[in-house]
Amino acid sequence: MVPRVQHDRHAVGAQAGAIRRRINMVAGGESCGYGLLTVRENLWMFSQFYGLDDRTARRRIEELLERFGLQDRGDSKMLDLSTGLRQKVNIIRGFLTDPQILFLDEPTLGLDVNAARQIRFFIREWIRERPGRTILLTTHYMLEADELCDRVAIIDRGRILACDAPGNLKRQLQRDAVFSLEIDGLGGWFPALQGIPGVRQAYYRPRDGRAEVDLILEEEGEIGPVISALTAHGAHILALRKREPTLEDVFVRLVGRGLSEAEEEEPE
Amino acid sequence: MSREAVILFLRTMIARAYPRIVGQNREPSWVLIDVGLPLLGTSAYVFIYRALQAPEAYIGFVILGGAMTAFWLNVLWSMSSQLYWEKESGNLPLFIIAPGPMMGILAGMALGGMLATTLRASVIVLAGSLLFGVRYAPADPLALIGTFLLTLLALYGLGMLLASLFLMWGREAWHLSNLPQEPIYLLSGFYFPIRALVFWVGALASLIPLTLGLDAMRQLLFPQAASGLFPVGIEIAGLAALSGIFLLAAHRALNAMERLARREGRLTERRR
User: What is the pLDDT, as a whole number, of residue A9?
Assistant: First the structure.
């Protein structure tokens, strides 16, 4: 997500203090603070690093704990919390200072479906209540980017390949036909797909001995030769459906490979 | 420094001191680890001195040395290598991105460490003195308290400096902390009067705040028995100078760390 409003101008080098007051950061999969301190104590400690006065800090802590349903865990030590709860506390820490710009790096990484949904809901609400704020979200979950972002930049190997509203990005594939196939067994048929005229992009994920294939075709009619090629190569098609393009399809189209492959290639 | 900046510094310092003061005492194991074990080590030296029929004041020297060991271990393991652990646990980026100054974070770690360790050191002195019947005859209690505080200031100033340096250089802070632990026991005269060393070795060892601090406190606590490396006044002046130098150097090292981070996008050495 890229900035939606023009913020005050501050030089990063010369006015680092002024910038730090306006920003905060939450990295997914990480906890914050100290295990021996309680949730409230940890949040209070971080609020003090931003100069929040005691009363404001404690009020915001209670408000945020309530919004995340954690009031009854406020006096639990951090080390007694589950990974999901620690991650929620980390998210609260990021929003506690009411930043102008918030950097969220994979905020729902490793969370169960309900916790991830709760966090996404909170982020949406927070932005809705504060239209002047910016969240810069880094994520591999394209559904999350689609749901939360006004603008999405697709970056591969440090280069921005596209930057636009999710709807506009998906519209780039509007003229293409996107299909999902489920095929029994993995493999040998996949190279055959890539040689078929009209197949713009083909990508498959192995799952439970089956293959989930995503196809981006120049037009719908190209699906016939694809099915013929697959069956000729011994593939047993279990399911086929045409669907609307997703951001993940845009990613595959732009980057030339799937998200999981791109993640594997990323340097540490 | 504006009023707002001072308030932010103080809030940062107090907040970072909090986990040390409150959090540490939530683990009752400190009574055994931080008091029981050092007391055992100290007792061994007491029995050696008793076997050698050393002057009774030496027992007091050893108890005091044993108590100050707690501060040295705290500086080494909970100050010097602390920023490294903070990086490993994910807290360091959160400290750096916050407007609260890193000097405030370090000062908070130092303040919390001092207060928490003072409790431990006091228990060691009290228990050791009761166990071995040590009698103190402080000539100038005010100077004694001043020397103690100045020793802590210089010692934790050194800890703040090492914290920055360990982070910049430290691939394995554990090894860096391990390295000076035992040599400092010797060079600072934890368990014997520093004057027993060759004068120049003692004078060089005076660059370590504990050497001067311990020697001055022994002279003030046992005026009849202790003959110091230098007169107390000089040792106090030395401690004041070391405090200033270490705190300034810590500030500079933090600035260097920040410049490095901005220039190269890293907080530690390249291999990390």
Answer: 64
Which residues from B are below 8 Å from A32, CB to CB?
90-91, 94
Q: Which amino acid is at A89?
A: V
Question: What local confidence, expressed as pLDDT, does residue B16 receive?
Answer: 97
Question: Contact A36/B97, CB-based, under 8 Å?
Answer: no
B12–A49: do the CB atoms touch at under 8 Å? yes
Give the SS3 label for residue A69: coil
Helix (H, G, I), strand (E, B) or coil at A202: strand
Residue B190 reports pLDDT greater than 90: no
User: Which residues make Cβ contacts (< 8 Å) with residue A25, sequence separation at least 6?
Assistant: A94, A102, A103, A104, A105, B93, B94, B97
CA distances to A26, A67, A115, B41, B47 from A110, rounded to whole Å, are: 14, 21, 10, 47, 57
Q: Which two tokens stand for residue B171?
A: 């691939």
The amino acid that residue B121 corresponds to is A
Contact B85, B151 (CB under 8 A): no
Domains of chain A: 16-150 (3.40.50.300), 175-244 (3.30.70.260)
Residue A175, SS3 per DSSP: coil
Cβ-nearest to A50 among B16, B26, B99: B99
Residues 229-268 of B with CB under 8 A from A: 262
